[in-house]
Amino acid sequence: MAFQINDSVTWVGKIDWELRKFHGEELSTHNGSSYNAYLIRAEKTVLLDTVWGPFAKEFVDNLKQEIDLNEIDYIVSHHGETDHSGSLPELLKHIPNTPVYCTANAVKSLKGQYHQDWNFQVVKSGDKLSLGSKELTFIEAPMLHWPDSMFSYLSGDNILFSNDAFGQHIASEKMYNDLIDQNLLYGEALKYYANILTPFSKMVEKKINEIVALNLPVSMICPDHGVIWRHEPLQIVEKYLTWARDYQENQITVIYDTMWNGTRRMAEALAAGLTAGDPDVTVKLFNSARSDRNDIITEVFQSKAILLGSPTINKGILTSVAGLLDEMKGMAFKHKQAAAFGCYGWSGESVKVLTEKLQEAGFQVDKEGLRLTWDPDAQGTEACHEFGKEFASGLK
Ligand code: FEO
Prior knowledge:
Blueprint: E1 3-4, E2 9-11, E3 14-16, E4 21-22, E5 27-28, E6 33-35, E7 38-41, E8 45-48, H1 56-66, E9 74-76, H2 82-85, H3 88-94, E10 100-102, H4 104-114, E11 120-122, E12 128-130, E13 135-140, E14 150-154, E15 159-163, H5 182-197, H6 201-213, E16 220-223, H7 234-244, E17 251-256, H8 262-277, E18 282-287, H9 293-302, E19 305-309, H10 319-331, E20 337-344, H11 350-360, E21 370-373, H12 378-395
Parallel strand pairs: 8-9, 9-10, 10-11, 15-16, 17-18, 17-19, 19-20, 20-21
Antiparallel strand pairs: 1-2, 2-7, 3-6, 4-5, 7-8, 12-13, 13-14, 14-15
Helix pairs in contact: 5-9, 6-7, 8-12, 10-11
The chain binds MU-OXO-diiron.
MU-OXO-diiron is lined by residues 79, 81, 83-84, 145-146, 164, 224-225.
């Protein structure tokens, strides 16, 4: 499959309808994904990125249907991660001397993965590649989301090729932002940002401001995953700026794991208390052992505060909560409040452990956590309700 984006640019990527996990088993992709590669034909011809290795042969076969491979003058590798570079070894078997334009860090990444001394041409921000009547300008974008990442801008057509930035893990036969369900589009774009770009928000904001200051006309943004932004393409840029500025909504998320339902009952009573404390706040509950971790991270991203609960086990906390805490620490969320809760039968360390780990993860913990023995009785349930009410009203 290939489709023409305009007179000079053709999409030559791969739609991966089956993909359910990405980055190994780390990131859920409920709606599949696509690996977008683009062929630009002017007086010179350039291929922008390839697709993930398992599809390498299919990619090269399809590309051959589109163009005689020997007519490809240049290859641009915006980012060395294998979902975009994985077909380079197969492709370069056919056209081994073709120059590969990439950043200095991408050379390290590509050599490190494929152990090949290809014809690398290192570029920096502002460097240009003439295609004849059109020109490609490179813009380094370190940490969006790897140190090697870069964008390129096609003058004349005014297209920004943004690699991972502005992408979404969506498989769709309708490859433009104005043709697909907007809730799906923004849900996946947000999940992508929350789980992949949150730790680099300061750099996202700086890079976007740098690009905006260039005052380049942008008719389209072509990311390397999901749909192309052709209708009001800057809408996703504005969203990224909003998300990069310590984004939060009026939401409190209650996350817990439970052994025999005591901590679950606490969570539910706490949630009712939150609503009593602030009827306008959105309250959501997740059992971390039974919910998708990346979906929880997205909810935390949207929240102004979380309540995190675990019963005590072996003087510690349940593993699903421990894993989530580790992941949240890596996300480096800013300006979010938190408090801990949990029930216990014997030693009861979980709330102390949770509180310490929440603080280590960068959450502001102003309220002492709530711990109850055994299962909450009427008095315990009331204590949870009151705790939730005070917590929510204190955040108003
Ligand atoms: Fe889509 Fe960082 O690779």
